[in-house]
Amino acid sequence: MPDVRKDAVKPDDEPEEQSDLHRVEAVLGPRFPGINKKLKDFNFKRHYGAEVKEIKRNGQSYVQDLENEYFREGDTLVVMADDSFVQTWGESSVFVMLANGKDTEPVASKGKRWFALALLILMITGATVGELPAVKEVKEYAKMTAINDLHIGASYNVFKGVSVYAQVHNLLNKKYQYYLGYPTEGFNFLGGLSFRF
Questions:
Q1: What is the number of helices (H) and of strands (E) in the chain?
Q2: What ranges in the chain are assigned the alpha helix state H?
Q3: How is residue 11 annotated by DSSP?
Q4: pLDDT tens-digit profile, the chain (197 residues)
Q5: If DSSP codes are grouped into helix, strand and coil, which group holds residue 115?
Q6: Cβ neighbours of residue 78 closer than 8 Å, sequence gap 6 or more
Q7: 170-195 burial code (b ≥16 CB/10 A, e <16)
Q8: C-alpha dihedral over 11, 13, 18, 21, to 10 degrees?
């Protein structure tokens, strides 16, 4: 057996290496056991292995006298933690959400930025052209009225997998267009056989 375990806690006189610690934001959920307790009474570091540096609540940020602040549901805690904190508590119901300070948004490349700008200009131009008088006249011409299409149909299974069907469309013999410039037929009938195998 080795004399010293590598995973053992270091004695207080040895300096602790903190280079692997980074900022993590944790939103407290209703199942957090320290709700309505002071930070000094709950000992967050012993429970979760992270040190609370700031508490955010209702748009206010608390960094002074944290030991006397009470934990409330919905508080955002800014903690210094290692990678295992997010891995361990990321899927738990104790914290509603965890934001790892090491995760950063990727910066869009120049090509993507130019594409986004061109798309924005195209959208503004399209909205502007849509308001021109000539375009408004075309819109009025293209305006179509609502339609009612009354039809009926029936089918009968003659044998297993064989059926006959009949459909009657536009029973009221109305004249209308589903699509501009394409008038529908008046009263019409359709029938046939269908096979399924």
A1: 5, 10
A2: 39-42, 44-48, 83-89, 110-129, 133-142
A3: P
A4: 444 434 444 444 444 445 688 888 989 988 899 999 998 898 888 888 899 999 999 988 999 988 999 999 999 999 998 888 888 888 788 888 888 766 555 555 677 788 888 988 988 887 777 666 666 666 666 666 777 788 899 999 988 889 999 999 888 888 877 777 788 888 889 999 988 87
A5: helix
A6: 23, 24, 25, 52, 53, 54, 55, 56
A7: beeeeeeeeeeeeeeeeeeeeeeeee
A8: 40
How many other β-carbons are positioned within 10 Å of the β-carbon of residue 89?
Answer: 18
Separation CA 80–CA 170 (nearest Å) = 72
Q: Which residue has 């131009």 as its token pair?
A: 125
